[in-house]
Each structure stands twice: as C-alpha cells, then as structure tokens.
Amino acid sequence: MGFRIEQVRLHQIEMPLVHFFETSFGRTYGRKMILVEVVSGGVSGWGEVTCGEHPFYNEEWTEGAWLLLKDYIVPAAIGKTLESAADAGRLSAGMRGHRMARGGFEAACWDLEARLKGVQLWKLIGGGARKGIPCGVSIGIQDSVEQLLGKIRTEVEAGYQRIKMKIKPGWDVEVIRAVRKEFPSILLMADANSAYTLNDIDHLKRLDEFGLMMIEQPLAHDEIIDHAQLQAALQTPICLDECIRTAHHAEQAIRMRACRIINIKLGRVGGFAEAKKVHDVCQANGIPVWAGGMLESGVGRAHNIAMATLPNFTLPGDISASRRYWKRDVIDPWVVVTPRGAIVVPDEPGFGYHLDLEFLQSVRVRQETLQAQ
Q1: In sequence order, what are the beta bridge partners of 139?
Q2: pLDDT per residue over 39-54, tens digit each?
Q3: Tens digits of per-residue pLDDT, 220-230?
Q4: CA distance 22 to 52
Q5: Architecture, CATH, for domain 3-118+354-366
Q6: Where are the domains of the chain?
Q7: Which residues are catalytic?
Q8: CATH assignment, 124-344
Q9: Do 215 and 194 meet the contact criterion of CB atoms below 8 Å apart?
C-alpha cells in the first residue's frame, strides 16, 4: 500500500529550555526547531529536523534547513507516490549532505505510513526488541563543579541509568575526578564534541583511571583515522558520533578499529532507512549502539524511542523525559521516565503520541504549505 504526498506543511517553533545546555560549542538557552508535516488522504505524519540554531555541530542550521526543505526537498517530493517510506530518501538523493533536513522529511513519511496502516512506527521499522527503553541523561557544562554534582544527584535519584557529562579542555580530568569521588559506581561517560586533537593523547589517557563507559567523539567531527590512533592508546572505549553519517562510515570506523561503540542520531544519518543500515553493520560486527539526542521536542523524541527498539540498541541512550527540557511539550502525553529509568514504548499507531496542536500554534513563528497540483 503506497501513498501520495499531497501536501507538506513546514512549522518552525521556538521554545525556551528549562535550563541552559552547554557543550564545547557554547551555551544554548532555547531551541528553534522545524517540524515537517506530510499529508496524504487526510492523514498527517510528523517529523522533526534536529539541527541546531547555528552550524556548529555540523554544517546544518535552522535557517538553512528551512530553505533546503522549502526550495529543494519538498518540491522534489510533492505529488510523488511512494510504495514505502523507505523510498523517501531517494527523492533527495542527488542533494549532498544536509541529512538532518532530509531526515526530518523522511521521518515524517515513516510516521505517515505507520498511521495510514494503523500500526506502530516501531513495528513498521522492524523494531520491537524491547518494550522499555533504558534511559540516560546528558548534562551540559555547568557554572561550577558543585552545580554539576547537584544536577547529577537529581538525575540519579530520578532513576536514570547512565550519566553523560560534557567535557572540554579545562573542564575534564579534575571535574570527572570530583564526579567519580561523589558517585563511584554510576555508569558514567564523557562527551567531548570534537574538542581535542591528537596532541592531547597523554592528557586523554588520564581519563582511563575513572572507569568511564566511553569517551564520545573526542577528535574532529569528520575524523576517523586519528580516532583509530587514539583508540589504540586508550583503555576507555571511544564512541563515534559526528563522523558517522552513513553505514559506510560505520564500516570504515569498525575496520580501522577507530571505536568500540557508535551513537546513532536519526537526523545525523538522514532518517530511519540509513539508521537501520548503520545499526545492522554495527550488530554484525559486535559494536553496540545507543540513541543520541539533539535537544528535540516530543516529536523527535518519539522517533528516537521507536528507533531504540531495534535489537542492537543495548546501551542507555539520551532519550529522557520531556520535563527535563520543556515547561510544556508539543505532544500529548509527554514522554515520561519510570522510577527505574526507562520509557515505556507507546502502543498507539504512528510514533505513538498525539500532537498538541493548540500549544504548537502558540509557539509557531512561521509556517509554509506546499501543495500538489
């Protein structure tokens, strides 16, 4: 059962974060996000473009993604009939890069197909390995070590199964030492967001003493070869994030022994079709994966939940409760985490949640509708 892309609506929304989030790129106080609504037969499927407001994580940013969608991605798709959402990515295959913009559209097509068929999104993508998603949290760089320890304590008491803390030069070894002293047994990892170089090998080797689950993307965003050299020097597993955009990149990294873990972000790899390929490559090679986060609204969070039901997502990811980020979310009900640090996978069709259209309208700053002739 195929479907025709009859209409696409683009919604840009803006929402303040409950608390600022700081990485090695800088500090974020709010999010400007694009939601993609694809319509067929009177039914809407929803996706989220997960890029940041500025081109720091990768080359994409909100304003650029809006133009890509409006001028290239949607016009290439409008009026077309797809046999499956798995074919959606091919409509923009001639466009280089911009996987987050393309992935937001592709995710909406998957949600649409699931809703048209009356099945859960996780079932449509071949997931369902677990009905509860183990959750970790990502904690940004804070104003003080005491503030960081307080935030970690709050999340541990809330039941989260893993703590990820952001690091950068000057906020790494001694800060992690303080965390380990206060929390000697928690699952702890460090995310560098490409803040280091090979000149820092001796410094990064000092992190081996803390029993970290992993160090995420310590070197450049597009670097695999240097990560292989660094991994050979470290006892701590390296997890690759930014430099894994395709299944081929994952194959290269595994072949070079550049990492022992891979983070899959739905937007970074361009949607579900490629995410499944990356997942399968990692599973075949014994490399565990987990779901990364990009400060998504409930729409992107719901898609991440579906993805994390695939069998090789064996490590707690960054899919946490809506209330950690937003005073009010755009979905109903909100994403909640159990006292044991898990999210119950929804059983409703599509991505499993309803859109809070009244709230969405209140935070929407612009809209564009493209219609098939």
Answers
A1: 165
A2: 999 999 999 999 999 9
A3: 999 999 999 99
A4: 13
A5: 2-Layer Sandwich (3.30)
A6: 3-118+354-366, 124-344
A7: 166, 265
A8: 3.20.20.120
A9: no
